[in-house]
Design brief:
Structural class: alpha+beta
Number of domains: 2
Number of helices: 6
Strand order of the largest sheet: 1-8-7-4-5-6-2-3
Helix content: 25-40%
Distance between the termini: 85 Å
Strand content: 15-25%
Shape: elongated
CATH architecture of the largest domain: 3-Layer(aba) Sandwich
Radius of gyration: 27 Å
Largest sheet: 8 strands, mixed
């Protein structure tokens, strides 16, 4: 006598759950989403990782030699793009370099010197915003700083400056800046920055960066 048998075929195969696939996608996207939130929303940044300097948003690219004419102290043209590949510590002021200017150059010099084995990854630039003579004592004290003459109205187009000041030269004399090895202006420091915190910022950047 014939016996009944269970039908065979695909219709009896257990349905596979797509939940594992969904979890794989979610886990893969999590780092991207987290990075986006941390970069664009300061409230999501852990307290210990917040920069002391102010993030420049959007980042400003390094100007070309045609956009920003620069000359060395002996009058030769200088193209800032030749410094790409290094982290740059930037300051601007008149050639007389009063006390506030000297403080900024001191911070740049010491921050550079204190990077130890990373010293070759950085350079420091002082934009001189007039045609006056730089005092010999300033030249000697900050030897190794790249000193470049520039018209302040040209420089102010590319650097972040405080608003409400009488002219671009006055505004440029306030901040310090950091430019990354790709040529993007990324951090700004206001009046009288804490040199230890500036150093901490650049140390963190050098530690975490694979460029420059």
């Amino acid at each position: 006598m014939a016996t009944d048998s269970l039908p065979s075929g695909p219709s009896n195969a257990p349905k596979r759950s797509i939940a594992p696939l969904i979890w794989i996608i979610v886990l893969s996207m999590a780092p991207v989403v987290a990075a986006f939130l941390v970069y664009y929303i300061p409230e999501f940044r852990p307290a210990g990782s917040v920069n002391y300097g102010t993030l420049v948003e959007p980042q400003r690219p390094m100007p070309t030699a045609e956009q920003l004419p620069l000359t060395t102290l002996d009058g030769k043209p200088y193209d800032l793009s030749q410094l790409k590949g290094q982290w740059l510590l930037l300051a601007a002021d008149g050639a007389a370099c009063p006390e506030e200017c000297a403080k900024k150059l001191y911070i740049l010099r010491n921050t550079h010197a204190m990077t130890g084995k990373n010293v070759e990854r950085l350079n420091r630039v002082w934009f001189i915003t007039d045609d006056a003579e730089v005092p010999e004592k300033v030249l000697e004290a900050y030897r190794g700083t790249i000193m470049l003459r520039v018209k302040p109205e040209d420089l102010a187009k590319f650097l972040t400056v405080p608003t409400g000041m009488a002219n671009s030269q006055e505004a440029l004399a306030v901040p310090l800046w950091i430019m990354d090895p790709l040529g993007n202006l990324i951090l700004e420091y206001g009046k009288d920055p804490d040199p230890f915190k500036v150093r901490k910022d650049i140390g963190r950047l050098l530690h975490n960066s694979r460029i420059g």
